[in-house]
Design goal:
The protein is an alpha/beta fold. The chain is 42% helix and 17% strand. The protein has 13 helices and twelve strands. A seven-stranded mixed β-sheet has the order 9-8-7-6-10-11-12. The structure holds nicotinamide-adenine-dinucleotide. Nicotinamide-adenine-dinucleotide (NAD) binds next to α7 and β7.
Length: 418
């Protein structure tokens, strides 16, 4: 799927009739950095990892994007996800560009001590190319507040006290109220707007969720609090279901126990093969795990009428075409999961101002931004008779493109419109 990462950009650029030269400028990453990390681990074994950071675009502000620790991480992966970050920050209009990075390690098989050492060696080698005014990492798959704390600490050793170098930090270490659940809350916000658009009540809705990490579990909890029944959840260990709706707080407690490993053995439901989640019989499907969950092989069997893309790039272009033909309502990733980067922006702003916001203010401002972005994309889709994904990319390309070209060219009207 990652080889298709320019597909949606080009689809929107075609509608805009954007010149090839402008496309090249907007698609090319600003730079890509690769570092080698070697350690002697806690078992006295030699281990070797590679770390990546692709910095895609900084026209609208310092670059921003998650740090993923996963064996599949490589330069292509980071590049495709960095590209998405540029459009995501532009869709919600927060003053950042796009970047993404990670290390090809598997934290599930590492001690915290080894993970801390690997993270610190990554920062040591990246310290000149990240920073509060340059590029600000954040959590992504398999990274969390603990990892962000190590990054802040290591960077500050070289550059002095710098809480704004990274977001998604714990509350007690210059994090923001509401950041941990922000991506899930943003998913909840846009799902609510989609239900309003379709004249559906919040309470008679069923949901199926793939992925029960930071994004999936917080989205599940907040959506269940609105009255929806989450009838099935799957993660890398398998799936669990109950037709009357899972007890989400109990499932969150269950998965927090390290020895349980995931959702599949949860006693409050029946187990199933996790791959079935995509075609589960539910009103709303929320992919919140990895890329490429909805493919040409399973898209024709998706039963949900609404897909909220909480994960990055969960739908392949072939599957997207099938879902669109079937009239399934898709809220695209660059809009649906932008709540995380939005509250990251609030965290960064608080760090720079040495000031703290209360939770109500964070949630209130987040809700305003998500609803405004949803409406803007939805109105554009309606006006230009295109899908929401194409409208979201169109909106983002106009914003980021105009900023990029204004920096280098006196004539900014190169197909970017008003
Ligand atoms: P996480 O590591 O907290 O959770 C990932 C979840 O995916 C886990 O429950 C894991 O078991 C599950 N998973 C992994 N492989 C799977 C498989 N093959 N089948 C089913 N489930 C599987 O990660 P996260 O932060 O929740 O990120 C999830 C997605 O959301 C990613 O695509 C990420 O890029 C995206 N995202 C995250 C944030 C954020 O703030 N954390 C923001 C925007 C987008």
């Amino acid at each position: 799927m990652l080889s298709d990462s320019h597909f949606y950009f080009n689809k929107a650029a075609d509608v805009m009739d954007l010149q090839d030269k402008v496309r090249q400028i907007l698609l090319s990453p600003r730079r890509s950095i690769k570092v080698e990390i070697a350690i002697e681990d806690s078992n006295d074994e030699l281990q070797h990892y590679t770390g990546y950071r692709v910095q895609h675009n900084n026209a609208r502000g310092p670059m921003k994007g998650g740090l993923r620790f996963h064996p599949s991480m490589d330069e292509d992966h980071a590049g495709a996800l960095a590209n998405l970050m540029t459009w995501k920050t532009a869709v919600v209009d927060v003053p950042f560009g796009g970047a993404k990075g990670g290390i090809d390690c598997d934290p599930h098989t590492m001690t915290d001590k080894d993970l801390s050492l690997v993270t610190r060696l990554y920062v040591e080698q990246m310290k000149e190319v990240i920073g509060p005014a340059i590029d600000i990492p954040a959590p992504d798959v398999n990274t969390d507040g603990k990892v962000m704390s190590w990054i802040m600490d290591e960077y500050s050793k070289y550059k002095g006290f710098s809480p704004g170098v990274v977001t998604g930090k714990p509350l007690h270490l210059f994090g923001s109220e509401g950041r941990e659940e922000a991506t899930g809350r943003g998913v909840m916000n846009v799902r609510a707007e989609a239900l309003k658009d379709r004249d559906r009540n919040f309470s008679d809705i069923t949901g199926a969720i793939q992925g029960f990490g930071n994004v999936g579990s917080n989205a599940a909890r907040l959506i269940a609090e609105q009255g929806a029944k989450i009838v099935a959840v799957a993660d890398h260990t398998g799936g669990v279901t109950t037709p009357n709706g899972l007890d989400i707080p109990a499932l969150i407690d269950w998965t927090a126990e390290r020895e349980h490993g995931g959702v599949s053995q949860f006693p409050g439901g029946e187990s199933f093969d996790g791959a079935e989640i995509v075609t589960w019989d539910a009103d709303v499907l929320i992919p919140a795990a990895l890329e490429g969950a909805i493919t040409e092989d399973n898209a024709a069997d998706v039963k949900a009428q609404i897909v909220v893309e909480a994960a990055n790039a969960p739908t392949t272009p072939g599957a997207d075409a099938i879902l669109n033909d079937r009239g399934i309502f898709i809220i695209p990733d660059i809009l649906a999961n932008a709540g995380g980067v939005t509250v990251s922006y609030f965290e960064w702003a608080q760090n720079i101002q040495r000031f703290r916001w209360e939770l109500d203010r964070v949630n209130d401002e987040l809700g305003k931004i998500m609803r405004k972005a949803y409406r803007s994309v939805s109105d554009m889709a309606e006006r230009e008779q295109v899908e929401k994904r194409t409208a979201a990319f169109g909106r983002a390309i106009r914003r980021a493109g105009k900023a990029a070209l204004s920096r280098v060219h006196v004539n900014t009207d190169l197909g970017l419109g008003g």
